[in-house]
Amino acid sequence: MKKGCLIAIVAVVTVAVLIGVWAVSRYNSFVTKEEGVTSAWSQVENVYQRRADLIPNLVETVKGYATHEQNTLEGVIAARARATQITVNPDDLNAETLQKYQEAQGQLGAALSRLMAVAENYPDLKANQNFLQLQAQLEGTENRIAVERKKFNETTREYNMSVRKFPGNIIAMMFGFDTKPYFEAAEGAEQAPVVDFGN
Amino acid sequence: MKFHIIKNSRAVIMAVMLMVAATVMAQVPARPDPPRLVNDLAGVLTAKQVQWLEDSLARFDRRTSNQVAIVTIDDLGGLDPAMMAYEIGQRWQVGTAEDNNGIVILVKPKTAGSPGRAFIATGYGLEGALPDATCKMIVEREMIPHFKQGDYFGGIEAAVAVVCPIAAGEYSKERYEKDSGNSLIAAFAGLFGALLIFFIIVKVTGKSGGGGKGNSGTGTFGPGGIFIGGLPLGGFGSHRGSRGSDFGGFGDGGFGGFGGGSFGGGGAGGSW
Questions:
Q1: Which of A17, A36, A188, B36 places its Cα 20 to 30 Å from the Cα of B248?
Q2: What does the pLDDT look like over B218-236, one tens digit per residue?
Q3: What is the reported pTM?
Q4: Which residue of chain A has the CA closest to B120?
Q5: How far is CA B77 from CA A148, B23, B108, in A?
Q6: Number of domains in chain A
Q7: Is residue A193 a part of any domain in this protein?
Q8: Residue numbers in A near B132 (CB within 8 A)
Q9: ipTM, 2 decimals?
Q10: Domain assignment of residue A185, yes or no
Q11: Contacts of the segment A50-55: beta carbons below 8 A, 24+ positions apart
């Protein structure tokens, strides 16, 4: 009788310890994966910032040649100002904040592509060495944005999958590991060009 | 009820994403096994040219740990050349994991129905050494003029001759960007020098007579010429050093394998 009781206690304790060990390992893997999402997010913000940093120089260069494109230039400057105001702390990363971020950056992207389209009309500008360099840098930055968004989505997918899978999701729920949002496919594609009449 | 809808839409998004991922995977060429730096999937190079490039790039890898992969491909499968080059670099893991110092030179030959495309993608670690504007210049100045004449080897060789020393920090990008006018004369001078060295080497190795090793013999010594070949005059002197160490690399085998490098979308390209 006493022996049976002891065995039962040992069994219960063993199971509890095993569950504890498992929970800790799950928890740690969530932390690691969440950290991955955080660093992927900071890379995303980096490359968007990189694009924003190119703009003053670009606007200056275009201004010298394209004198009749004041509206387009102001549109870019305004969109840049709006986009750089919105930053998302990785802890506040949810569908809503990401959406806002993406919208602002999408508008900036659209304004920039209008500017580059307008630039096509100025042969002198297109021959300017400085402009060509900026154009190459801008293209490169757009590529980097595409890559970092993709990496962010991949890292997030991995994290989300681990957080939602049973039975790990119990631990995730207990410690508040929520799923994180994805970037939507075509940035700015769904937005009609906004005509900016200036303020 | 609402919960279910959310769950379903999530599942749909997930499925779509997985499908997209699967199709992208199908288009990107598989990592070569055994590993090779030169992958002429479009078949625009001769076997000898491939070997020559492979040997010189393998030696460049051993000497500097910078990995330069060359891929020619017939069909980009709907991908942008930048994305294709990036995917190749990322999946093949060109460059070392510590330094992310890989480069992918992607060439899609011109066909009757589609324009030719070239792209130089840089790993994270080489974005500083080879900024996008420099890559663009290399594509437009070194590659496309050759490609327009159907000379794929010439264009790739000229690009490698500039990309390698800049990546290794032996030749500055600023100097390259300034050296525009005399590059043609310099190329001729370089070519002449390369030929001279090549003939001397052929003579020397011919005397020591490695019958079976003939292939690796010419291949190994070729790059002395490669690196000098497309370089503007100023690079001539500084490249004697590297040629010297390239001799040292003789006999220690081919390319050892890709190293775990990562890419972030750096680089630039052009079309013709």
A1: B36
A2: 434 444 444 444 444 333 3
A3: 0.73
A4: A140
A5: 21, 9, 11
A6: 1
A7: no
A8: 136-137, 139-140
A9: 0.75
A10: no
A11: A50/A141, A50/A144, A51/A108, A51/A112, A51/A138, A51/A141, A51/A142, A51/A145, A52/A80, A52/A83, A52/A84, A52/A108, A54/A134, A54/A137, A54/A138, A54/A141, A55/A80, A55/A112
